[in-house]
Amino acid sequence: MKAARLIISAGALRESILHKIHEGYQGITKKCRAHTRESVWWSGISTEIENLVKTCPQCIEESSNNREPLIPSEFPQRPWQKIGIDLFKLEWKWYLLATDYYSRYPEVVLLTSLREVIKHLKSIFARHGTPEEVYSGTHFGSLLTSKFTQFAKEWAFKHTTSSPKFPQSNGFIESMVKIIKRGLKKSDAGYKALQSYHATPLSNGFSPAELLMGRRIRTMVPIAVKQLDPKIPDKQTVLRKEEHNRLKQNFNYDSRHRVVYQNQNLEIMSGSSI
């Protein structure tokens, strides 16, 4: 093993592993590499991953759209403290998405009826516990009935709705919807893509599964058994990295959109009109 990773020597086995890694990530060389850092190694694996992605037509099409989900402006202090929920439609089917703000761990449910939403949320809460706050996205408006209000009261969580006055507050759940839709578009590989997302480290160095459940999960990519032992990520390390990444993300957003803050001096060119 190399740094607790499995060293793969056989050529045919390498090809099979590359296929499994690539199957979970369409067009994301960085994510493929991040997954292998926790599992397998051989000389030249990074180059082989990059070449595979570069020669895949679907990867090329998807690469410009792949971004890590936005970091919430107010980051939670623990897993499953606050979650975001929304509905999305894909190929004439409706899905329910529930995502933890701390770990970015998504739960996805295919709906046969919109009346099932509360039942599925109860099932999700039975697995992970009841969050303190549930934020509902823009497509959830039609379900904000007295039944949902009663559900929030009975299960003791605060319900916050999206607001057109504050579009940035919608950014996290909207970015997660885009990520999940891209994965599910891969037909039978869709849930493999979802599993790969659960297992792959975020920019803070920990995977959604580690952050939510305190353990790495086993996927189709080989991994040393020792890597599957439970280990809770250090909270202060997570919070420090998240704050650093949030500031970096805000800077990049402001640079792209030329955001100007109050009291910032503006240089107006001669002849410009206001």
UniProtKB/TrEMBL annotation:
This is RNA-directed DNA polymerase. Coiled coil: none annotated. Its EC number is 2.7.7.49. GO terms for molecular function: nucleic acid binding; RNA-directed DNA polymerase activity. Pfam families: Integrase_H2C2. It comes from Lasius niger (Black garden ant). GO terms for biological process: DNA integration. InterPro entries: Integrase_cat-core (IPR001584), Integrase_H2C2 (IPR041588), Retrovirus_Pol_polyprotein (IPR050951), RNaseH-like_sf (IPR012337), RNaseH_sf (IPR036397). Gene3D superfamilies: 1.10.340.70, Ribonuclease H-like superfamily/Ribonuclease H. Residues 75-241 form the Integrase catalytic domain. It is an enzyme of class 2 (transferase).
